[in-house]
Amino acid sequence: MGRKIRMSRGGAKKRPFYSIVVADSRSPRDGRFIEKLGTYNPMLDKSHPDRVTLKTERIEHWLKAGALPSDRVARFLGDAGVRPKPSYNETPKKSSPKAKAQERAKAAADAAAAASGEAAAAPSA
Questions:
Q1: pLDDT at 90
Q2: What residues contact residue 19 under an 8 Å CB cut-off, 6+ apart?
Q3: What is the torsion angle, in degrees rounded to the nearest 10, for the CA atoms of residue 38, residue 32, residue 9 and residue 87?
Q4: DSSP of 62-125
Q5: In what order do the strands lie in the sheet with 52-54?
Q6: 53 touches 38 (CB < 8 A)
Q7: Does an H or E element contain 60, and which?
């Protein structure tokens, strides 16, 4: 049984509020969980102290027990100093351009560089 530290959504429509919970990986997002470890309120300003609250002692216990945090929760834990900040790419691999699109972009960039090189050479002559 895999355990995950993840968020469970609550709150009203268009007013999200999340509980940070440890749950069995097979249970539904807003379903049964083992323990509540904190909260996340995205409606508050980023500098507000109550935006993210964590029970660090219990989180460390669950991490030692083998629970894996979700990507978003891992970022919260990195910001809180509970564990090292995860390194993530600005552009996820899944949404980056595929091979043919990268070739087309490179060809367009080469053509633009050649055209600007010709334009720069013509006025000086």
A1: 65
A2: 7, 8, 10, 33, 36, 38, 39, 40
A3: 60
A4: HHHTTPEEPHHHHHHHHHHTSSPPPP--SS-GGGS--HHHHHHHHHHHHHHHHHHHHHHHHHH-
A5: 52-54, 35-40, 15-24, 3-12, 68-69
A6: yes
A7: helix 56-64
Using alpha carbons, list the distances in angstroms from residue 53 to 1, 21, 41, 60.
Answer: 27, 12, 9, 14
Q: Rounded to a whole number, what is the distance in angstroms from the first to the last CA of the chain? A: 74
Cα–Cα distance between 7 and 15 in angstroms, integer? 15
Question: β-strands 68-69, 3-12: how paired?
Answer: parallel
Q: Is the CB of residue 38 less than 8 Å from the CB of residue 20?
A: yes
CB-CB neighbours of 109 under 10 Å: 10
Give the whole-angstrom CA distance, residue 52 versus residue 69: 15
Cβ–Cβ under 8 Å, residues 19 and 30:
no
The string of pLDDT tens digits covering residues 27-80 is 998 899 999 999 999 999 988 989 999 999 999 999 999 999 998 999 999 888
Residue written as tokens 């530290």? Answer: 5
Which residues does residue 54 pair with via DSSP β-bridges, in sequence order? 38
